[in-house]
Amino acid sequence: MPTNPLRAKGKFSHKQTEIGVDIELVQFEEDGIFYVLSPALDLTGYGKDENEAQTSFSIVLKEFIEYAVIKHTLLKELKRLGWHIKGKEFKVIKAPSLPTLIPKNPELAALFTSKRVTTVPRKIMIPAYS
C-alpha cells in the first residue's frame, strides 16, 4: 500500500483541520477478488488487483467521511464503532485495535482463521471541526 496517508477531501467546514489517525487495514484475496477492509471503520474496498482494491477503499473512506460530516454524525459514528474520542475538537482520537475488535466480530474472527490476510498499519486523515 502507498505510504502517504489516506485523505478524504471535500468541504467539511469553514474551520476545517485534519487529524492523522492510525488504523489497521486488512488485505486478502478471495475467488480472484482483492479486498481492503478497515475493521475500525467497518469499511471495505475491492477490485481485480491490490491497487484497484486500495483505490476502491479510498473512495469508500472519502464518501463515508464526507457524508458523516455533512450530516454532523462523524463523532457519533466513530464512537459507535468503538473509537476513543476525548476533548473538544478531537484533542485525543484513537481507533479501536484489531485485538479488541476480533473477539466482538465473529465474521472478522473467521476471516483471520480461514483466509491468508495481511494487516497494514495506515494513517488516515479525519477532519476536525468544532
Short description:
With 130 residues, this protein is an alpha+beta fold.
Description:
With 130 residues, the chain is an alpha+beta fold. 32% of the residues lie in helices and 34% in strands. It has helices at 50-70, 74-80, 98-101, 106-114, and strands at residues 6-7, 17-30, 33-38, 43-47, 84-86, 92-94, 118-128. The radius of gyration is 15 Å and the shape is globular.
Q: How much of the residues is beta strand, in percent?
A: 25-35%
Instruction: State Rg.
Output: 15 Å
Q: Helix count? A: 4
Q: Count every beta strand, where a strand is a DSSP E run of 2 or more residues.
A: 7
Sheet with most strands: 5 strands, mixed
Helix content, binned percent: 25-40%
What pattern of helices and strands is seen along the backbone? EEEEHHEEHHE
Shape: globular
Structural class: alpha+beta
Task: Please give the order of strands in the largest beta sheet.
Answer: 1-7-2-3-4
Overall mean pLDDT stands at 83
* Low-pLDDT runs: 1-14
Could you say how many structural domains there are in total?
1
The end-to-end distance, rounded to whole angstroms, is 32 Å
SSE topology sketch:
Blueprint: E1 6-7, E2 17-30, E3 33-38, E4 43-47, H1 50-70, H2 74-80, E5 84-86, E6 92-94, H3 98-101, H4 106-114, E7 118-128
Parallel strand pairs: 1-7
Antiparallel strand pairs: 2-3, 2-7, 3-4, 5-6
